Amino acid sequence: MKLNRFAKYAWFVVAYNILVILWGAFVRASGSGAGCGSHWPLCNGEVVPMNPSIERVIEFTHRGMSGIALLLVLGMLIWALRAYPWGLVRNGAIASAILMLIEALIGAALVLFGWVGMDKSTARVFSIGAHLINTFLLLAALTLTAWWASGGKGVALRARPLYTLAMSIGLLGLIVTGAAGALTALGDTLFPAASLAEGIAQDVNPAAHFLVQLRVVHPAIAVVVGTYLVLLTFFMRGGEGTMTHKLAFALRLLVIAQILAGVVNIFLLAPTWMQLLH
């Protein structure tokens, strides 16, 4: 398909936001979320931090990247409103802008309420889950906007109710898996293990923090949901050579790669680079 200027811009926004999300994961994995203190949008009371620590540099960089992401999405919204009639592209751009604003508000709340760094509060757990779910929805909205702008067609949901239900279950499973994974990663950061044996002992200890115990639950959920998605692709793959067939094959490969990455992550005791890859 031939991309117009807006479609190219939209795909760039998708790629840039993935980079921002990865850097945000690095902020959490490195324990740098409190690098700017409890100040927002200022960093430790300064517009530009002077003589910053490495944690402050990491957090300040994330804030700067997030600010640029917000401007890019707002620019995409304005462009879509000017260049497209009411329809899929406009709706996607509007949804992207709304979700981006929610993303910024959640990020601000994490800092202002101190749900960063080594904080182990229940409030942080819920906020991290909400943050991850909103991030998933944001990426979905951005990707769909770029897809529709590139000539991709919408899905006729009402015409195939059983397929719609099956896909909805799969999407819900992905969200649950991702949220559980985010909490598991938080547990790895707050309660690191020196060895695999120590990690297993922590996981099965009934007195352990529930974030530690969740490290057993997440892989189980991932395997169940991954198996469901792979089976789903065989029922919804479409004709040979069609876009649906190609995307179904790609999804199978991604599911397998994710499960393998999860296994490696466990055996390597969740190093930062592997968490980002996973």
Characterize this entry briefly.
The chain is mainly α.
How would you characterize this protein structure?
The protein is mostly helical and 278 residues long. The protein folds into two domains: 1-153; 155-278. It contains nine helices and no strands. The chain starts with a helix and ends with a helix. The relative contact order is 0.09.
Keyphrases for this structure?
278 residues, mainly alpha, 2 domains, 73% helix, globular
**With helices defined by DSSP (H or I, 4 residues minimum), what is the helix count?**
9
How many E strands? 0
Radius of gyration of CA atoms, rounded to a whole number: 20 Å
Largest sheet: none
Oligomer: single chain
Assign an overall shape: globular
Q: What's the structural domain tally?
A: 2
Q: Please identify the structural class as seen in this structure.
A: mainly alpha
| CA(first)-CA(last) distance | 30 Å
- Which spans of ≥5 residues are poorly predicted at pLDDT below 50? none
The percentage helix is: over 70%
**SSE succession:** HHHHHHHHH
Overall mean pLDDT stands at: 82
